[in-house]
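Quick one, tokens below:
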């Protein structure tokens, strides 16, 4: 199935829908026919990798609120925190500090969350 993202005037995704298989690769026809901007998106693409081994398409599967960047030809999720930076290879946001390696270990497992005021990971108690 082909998936499409409907964009507003600022290239923000406002809707994602499943199209017909015969519409695969025909985003320009949809745009011309409706006057609205559509970009095809790949359900199986995340961080520039196709999870089934296929060809990745536009870095990430589009979601509502994502930005379509025509220069990168990529869908970029909303920035979660002001301090995070965009990884150009994946078009995903990365914390400026790596999550501690002991995340998920122990009994009970350690859980971390981002604290923007300290720009660091803190253990959730």
């Amino acid at each position: 199935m082909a998936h499409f993202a409907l964009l507003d005037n600022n290239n923000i995704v406002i809707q994602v829908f499943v199209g017909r298989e015969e519409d695969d690769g025909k985003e320009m026809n949809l745009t011309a026919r409706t006057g609205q901007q559509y970009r095809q998106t790949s359900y199986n693409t995340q961080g520039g990798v196709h999870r089934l081994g296929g060809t990745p398409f536009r870095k990430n599967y589009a979601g509502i609120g994502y930005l379509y960047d025509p220069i990168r030809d990529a869908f970029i999720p909303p920035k979660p925190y002001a301090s995070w930076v965009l990884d150009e290879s994946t078009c995903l946001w990365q914390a400026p500090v790596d999550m501690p390696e002991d995340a998920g270990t122990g009994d009970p497992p350690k859980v971390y969350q981002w604290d923007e005021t300290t720009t660091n990971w803190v253990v959730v108690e």
